[in-house]
Write a structure and sequence with these properties.
- By secondary structure, the protein is mostly beta strands.
- The protein has a single domain, classed as Sandwich (Immunoglobulin-like), CATH 2.60.40.1090.
- It starts with a helix and ends with a strand.
- It is elongated, with a radius of gyration of 33 Å.
- The longest helix is centred in the N-terminal third of the chain and has 18 residues.
- The mean pLDDT is about 90.
- The strands form two sheets. It has a six-stranded antiparallel β-sheet, with no helix packed on it.
- The chain has one helix and nine strands; from the N terminus they run H-E-E-E-E-E-E-E-E-E.
- Helices cover about 10% and strands about 35% of the residues.
């Protein structure tokens, strides 16, 4: 056992001699000089946006009138950065920002269901994609802000064929 302790100590001494012991910094007393080092970080204006799906309740049998649903837009912008949120017409042909359409997924189903997207729960302010006209304006705080999208689908007395009706609307944050 003593032999292994001596061997271990010898190995440590050989390692220190081969790699050198840590050097100590010298101390100088002839004087000193200084310089200023600027440290800088630039924050550029920026925003991110995410959207949750809007799903209307399923309808069985016949129903007429408006159906309501909501979605959330999560926006994060740098502090004091002004922004607008726009929603386009969606992916269904012939949809416009003021007359959006949901289309069926089954082959041969050409029926559509009209729907609207609004900035308020009273459905008074339509939500579009034209800055200065029908987008929602706000200013960033550096933290996440959540904006609610209010949706309203209109069912007429003539019910379309059973199907899943949908559209994909693109939300854009302009900053």
């Amino acid at each position: 056992m003593n032999r292994s302790l001596v061997s271990l100590a010898f190995t440590g001494i050989v390692y220190l001699l081969a790699h050198g012991a840590p050097a100590r910094a010298a101390v100088y007393t002839n004087g000193s000089a200084t310089a200023q080092m600027r440290v800088q970080l630039t924050i550029l204006p920026g925003c991110t946006i995410a959207a949750t799906p809007m799903t209307f309740n399923a309808v069985q049998g016949s129903a007429t009138g408006p159906m309501a649903s909501t979605s959330s837009l999560t926006v994060s912008c740098t502090a004091t950065t002004g922004y607008n949120i726009g929603l386009n017409a969606g992916t269904v042909p012939n949809s416009t920002e003021t007359d959006r359409l949901l289309a069926g997924a089954l082959s041969g189903n050409t029926a559509t269901i009209p729907f609207g997207l609004y900035q308020d729960a009273g459905y008074a302010t339509p939500w579009g994609n034209t800055q200065g006209a029908n987008t929602l304006s706000d200013s960033g705080t550096g933290a996440v802000k959540v904006h609610t999208v209010y949706g309203q689908a209109m069912l007429s007395a003539t019910m379309p064929a059973p199907d899943v009706y949908s559209s994909t609307v693109t939300a854009t944050v302009y900053f």
